[in-house]
Amino acid sequence: MTIQQRIILFFILITALLLSVIALMWYRLTLQQELTQAQKNRYESYRLAVQLKNTADELTQMARTYTHTGDPRYLEYYRHILAIREGKEIRPKGYDILFWDKISPEMDFISPKTGTKISFQALLKRYDISSQERTALHEAKKYADKLTQLERQAFHLMDLASLNDSLSSANHLTAQQLLYGAQYRRDKAKMMQKLSNYFNLLDRRSSFKVQAIAHRTRQIDFAIFTLILLMLFLAIFSWFHSRRKIVHPLRELIDWTQKLKKGSFEFEGTIHGEDEIGQLARSFTHMADTIHQSLNDLNVKAHTDRLTGLPNRMALEIEMQRLHLAVKYYGIHCNLVLLDLDYFKAINDRHGHNIGDRVLVHFAHLLQKRIEAPQFAGRWGGEEFVILTKEMSLAQTKRLIESLLQDVERDTFPGGIHVTFSAGISPIQADDEIETVLRRADAALYRAKRLGRNRVETQEQDAS
Ligand code: GH3
Ligand code: MG
Ligand code: MG
Questions:
Q1: Is residue 291 a part of any domain in this protein?
Q2: Rounded to an integer, what is the distance from CA 11 to the centroid of its chain?
Q3: Is 272 within a domain?
Q4: Smallest Cα–Cα separation from 450: which of 460, 438, 442?
Q5: Which of residues 182, 205, 224 is at a domain's end?
Q6: Measuring from atom 21 of ligand 1, which residue has the nearest CA?
């Protein structure tokens, strides 16, 4: 997988996890709102039942006070309470809790001008309660209505009492007995039983709902926690993965460039794979190999004579330095031989430059054949060659050159011609400069030319 694909995958995963966390948090918020709504609904439903109980209690209180005192203000209050409960008069604000207890006998109740007329039954329909709870409240209301019937009977007796003085005290007593009698208390008790039933139902349902929401909230919390852990894990994994797969290979690549800068071509690395860095590393090593190869080729070309393929003057000079050091530090015997083809100018003149070239190449082949490692032969320039002998005495070197002289003399060169050469040998000595050695070899060569050519001469010391 490429680095780009890995980065895309990482962002898709992180975005998906983040979106899931946001969605779950939003859902959790709605659950919280649902919980608040459920608790509010529970309180409102509770207040609805309390209102029925309070109005029933207040009606009882007003009716009983009226039958005891005969004060028409209590009858007036009673009628207002009932009219409001039945939706015939406007419902004042804060009506449902302790409303009538706050009005003293000296005060007149003034019905509000604005507001809604709504009966208890109509109010009931507005609330989100179960059908069982609704039935319980309906039945409670039925018993509340039964109580108002008894209270009306009591008021009727009071009316009769006001018309007929002789029956007055008896009717007062009967009216009071109606409101304290067994039937009245039975109906009231039944109403309270229904209300109590309603409270139980309400409590069970709403607490169950609250528990269900709380349970769901815990599940959501767990899911959010798990997703956040996953995100954390993904982030840690990505960190280590990018260090292993991107940062370390890049550092290694930088090391490679530093090595290349210093001229080293050894790249032992651990960068593998098909991703961008792997491709870059392969291109880099390929490029370095090409440079290395080109440098090697250039190096070989720089040290090789183009015509003969023998080591050239530069290669000979390097080898001379090496042998000089070997003589100096290890005391081994080394010699320098300078060879020059005889009358070469005449060959050129007589057979042409091309044959001259081919003669040089042929001579070079003979040298390569006869001079084996550790001996070293090269073209010094023109028709001059150098042989460097290693771990060989002066006499041994001389014998080698003499046998070479014979081989060359016997050989037939291109153009069917015969060629000879002359040579001068000088030993390489520890306290000599290379130039001195060359000068001595040149002097020996000169002597060989002078003494008739096709021969070898030696020169161990500078001529005085
Ligand atoms: P001597 O025996 O004294 O060495 O005589 P010589 O003719 O060999 O020496 P001289 O220095 O007079 O001539 C060397 C010639 O070698 C002159 C030059 O034209 C020829 N020569 C040098 N390099 C090349 C080459 O690469 N190819 C050919 N064909 N001729 C070359
Ligand atoms: Mg020459
Ligand atoms: Mg010559």
A1: no
A2: 7
A3: no
A4: 442
A5: 224
A6: 382
Instruction: Report how far ligand 3's centroid is from the alpha carbon of 342 (Å).
Output: 5
What is the block-wise mean pLDDT of the chain (464 residues), using blocks of 10 residues?
90 96 96 90 89 93 92 91 93 79 78 88 87 94 96 92 78 91 96 96 90 93 97 96 91 91 82 85 90 94 96 97 95 97 97 97 97 96 97 97 97 96 97 94 97 95 72
Helix (H) or strand (E) holding 139: helix 131-163
User: Candidates 348, 349, 419, 455: which one to mutate for ligand 1, based on the most atoms within 8 Å of Cβ?
Assistant: 348
Residue 425, beta-bridge partner list: 337, 458
Q: In this structure, what DSSP letter does residue 422 have?
A: E
CA 393, CA 376: separation in Å to the nearest integer?
15
CATH number of the CATH domain containing 317: 3.30.70.270
**Ligand 2 centroid distance, CA of 94 (Å):** 135
Indicate which residue's Cα is closest to atom 4 of ligand 1. 342
Cβ pair 310, 339 in contact under 8 A: no
Beta bridge partners of 338: 386, 424
Closest CA to 116 of 144, 87, 140: 87
Q: How far apart are CA 177 and CA 63, in angstroms?
A: 12
**Among candidate residues 224, 246, 270, the one where a domain is terminated:** 224
Rg of the chain in Å (alpha carbons): 63
Residues 450 and 383: their CA atoms lie apart, in Å, by 18
Task: Note the pTM of the prediction, 2 decimals.
Answer: 0.59
